[in-house]
Amino acid sequence: MTTLSASNPTLLDVANLIGPDGKAVKAVVELLAETNEVFQDAAWQECNDGTGHKTPVRTGLPTPTWRKLYGGAAEGKGTTVQIRDACGMLEQYSTIDASLVPLLGQSEWRMLEEIPFIESMNQALADALFYGDSSTTPEKIMGIAPRFDSLSAENAGNIISGGSNDTDNTSIYLVCWHPLTCSMLYPKGSQAGLRIKDLGEQTVLDGSNNPFQALRTHYKWDVGVCVRDWRYVVRIANIEVSDLVKDASSGADLVDLMVQALEVLPGNSGMGRKSFYGNRTIRSYLRRQIKNKANLALSLDQVAGKQVLSFDGIPVRRCDAITNAEALVS
Questions:
Q1: Predicted local distance difference test score (pLDDT) of residue 46
Q2: Sign for the pseudo-dihedral over CA of 177, 327, 133, 190
Q3: 136 alpha carbon, distance to own chain's centre
Q4: What is the pLDDT of residue 76?
Q5: Residue 29: its pLDDT value, please?
Q6: Of 5, 6, 181, 314, most Cβ neighbours within 10 A?
Q7: How many CB atoms lie within 10 A of CB 159?
Q8: Pair type for strands 44-46 and 182-186
Q9: What b-and-e string marks burial along 10-32, b requiring 16 or more CB atoms within 10 Å of the CB?
């Protein structure tokens, strides 16, 4: 595992700070990071306001003055807006038939049987990271797509249209992760926001209301997203999936769009971790389009013993929570 700077910690970095009493939490965090490519890059920070995070978002820069001798300079003032990103509460219970215990060792059995429950939470968070909209569903977090959904908004310059006028659309997201730009959140004083409680053996009812003995576990993950500086997030929207072809002779030219996205980021974007995110359809067509263009911008690199697909040196992560049925961004 790569050790990263304490100023820009990943989920695994946060887990490494958990004491021995959080052994179960740390094990689950490692599994979450292993099965969700987003968590290999995302910066995580503790909320500064309990279960929420208050940040000043800059909306304007001060204007300097060309001063002449014996002349004064106008007092410049930047403009900011105070926002508060709240953590959502993602919860579920696992119920495993207690009769399975004699067949396997207790600890090994519990971990194997509960992997699907952990993975389902992983997928739910990945979906909310991109599509959660607390303005319409207050219990969810505010994801990335709803913050970048209008070509006439203030941040429209960070939305690149793939040219679609149809409904079978997807997006590629470019994120520069850093606590000062875009990060994941967990409540103050928590263990990465994750709580796991072994409820022991209980009598539960099956679908026909017949009782049986089961071992139950309660999972609770309080987590949020903070986009402190929208200039460090780029959405390539309106990519019509049905129009994609492997030689980019029609439909979206993924290589060209990704180059445009990189040029949208501020010049000092090197302070964070940049990553592209797209689903399996995008990754497949990207690899074929680049092959047909004989372009060397795409490579397979070895990182911590694993092959990582990179475009111009930046990881291209697969996230199948990104759908092929996005609404048209207009």
A1: 94
A2: negative
A3: 20
A4: 61
A5: 83
A6: 181
A7: 22
A8: parallel
A9: bbbbbbeebeeebebbbebbebb
Q: Which residues of the chain have pLDDT under 50?
A: 1-4
**pLDDT at residue 309, rounded to an integer:** 85
Amino acid at 135: S
Residue at token pair 């503790």 = 46
Q: What is the pLDDT of residue 150?
A: 94
